[in-house]
Amino acid sequence: xxxPASTSNLGPGFDVLGLALALENRLEAAYDPDLRGLRxxxxxxxxxxxxxxxxxxxxxxxxxxxxxxxAPLGGYRLRQTNRIxxxxxxxxxxxxxLAGVLAADALWGRRLSRDEILEIAAGMEGHPDNVVPxxxxxxxxxxxxxxGIRHIRFEPPKGLRAVVCVPDxxxxxxxxxxxxxxxxxxxxxxxxxxxxxxxVGALLSGRAGLLREAMEDRxxxxxRGRLIPGLSRVIAAGLRAGAFGAALSGAGPSVxxxxxxxxxxxxxxxxxxxxxxxGVTAESRVLDFSAAGARAERR
Length: 299
Known about the structure:
alpha+beta, Ribosomal Protein S5, domain 2, 6-stranded mixed β-sheet, 4-stranded antiparallel β-sheet, 2 domains
């Protein structure tokens, strides 16, 4: 099972917008009725830190799905090959949850609908903005409603590249949410509604020149920026280097930018240099967008 990374919010679209990126985690799962318990192998990101027991997130999602399918809960071998940086705002936990759900469903006959898959994975995540693009690929708008997760998928933007700048420290989503205010002003709410609408319109119409203003935010970045050294300067550096727009990736601490292909490497270098000036080591990556989303591979 291959599941892509994702960037969410894209600035103002808090808990609503998500975009799949061409950077993937792989989960291989097999059922062995003669095996007692659970065997987990991990390579790549988190190989030395992620748990290999019942606390493993992919297994927790898999076990929840197995229970729903009334399938055996023991006798599984899992092998994770992780390429998505952990706890950096690039959807690593959504990828793990979704991979576990999909692996369990694939092993036992693909009995779950798309809506059921999203319900389980987003239920573990707490919100659907990373899970939906990780499953479907492309640019996704999603909302958790009483009737379930409603979502619309669009093809990824053409003529643009994704630039992510990943600093060398973790910023757990729970902590990133705790610092947000319980209430916001009507002025800030209207500001974000207008920017979110402008952002979606700009991406769908190919008007990249609008992205600089469209990716502005007042609901989460000003508060999270207090705990992310140099955030405003990193975003400004990316814009000066030629990015069309830049924002915190998800809860952070990574920064995401849209760029034309010819300027993407320079944008990444500029953002990494700005992080270094703030005393933080960072690595930049230029990525394509993932149109396919999660997919199964049989061996």
